[in-house]
């Protein structure tokens, strides 16, 4: 199992198996990085330009895997825990800890993976409770898991506060009849 720089497990054997798409790939399958960051790697940008900026890793018939791209990145959108399915409930105007956290599956620490260096950022969303279980035990992110009872309680508390904010109270109910 892959490990964080501190030695704790990250919950996967292959981070690339949990990637849906690269952050730099457009809906048309083009490489946005090659267009916007051309100055950082002109050779890569020129190669993509020759192919009309087509991403060879995003092409199902292509000859690249995500790990082959030198500028690959896949970061989470953070709407639900990928392990237990708990949905994020953010409270506007309140400084409370989020239910979901970003969990790194790979680290740019120079550790070798076969002949390749792990230098790609790959993150997923985990609730705080699953995040702790993955780092503090042998729990895996692809386990069939249910939300922790404490996580459900916190989510329901936040849902109740959301509903209170959305409730409608007429002026006559708020102020009573003032005849």
Q: What can you tell me about this protein's structure?
A:
The chain is α+β, with helices and mostly antiparallel strands and 179 residues long. The chain has a domain at 74-166. 26% of the residues lie in helices and 10% in strands. The strands form two sheets. The chain has a three-stranded mixed β-sheet with strand order 1-5-2. A two-stranded antiparallel ribbon has the order 3-4. The protein is flat, with a radius of gyration of 22 Å.
Properties at a glance:
alpha+beta; 5 helices; 10% strand; 179 residues; three-stranded mixed beta sheet; DUF7097; two-stranded antiparallel ribbon
Topology, element by element:
Elements: H1 32-36, H2 42-50, E1 73-74, E2 100-104, E3 112-113, E4 116-117, E5 121-127, H3 128-136, H4 149-166, H5 171-175
Parallel strand pairs: 1-5
Antiparallel strand pairs: 2-5, 3-4
Helical proportion, percent range: 25-40%
| Poorly predicted spans | 109-116
| Secondary-structure class | alpha+beta
Using the CA coordinates, give the radius of gyration.
22 Å
Oligomer: single chain
User: Residue-averaged pLDDT, rounded?
Assistant: 86
- Number of contiguous helices: 5
> Ends: how far apart?
73 Å
Shape annotation: flat
**What is the count of β-strands?**
5
Sketch the major β-sheet: 3 strands, mixed
- Output the helix-strand order: HHEEEEEHHH
Strand order of the largest sheet: 1-5-2
> Beta fraction of the residues?
5-15%
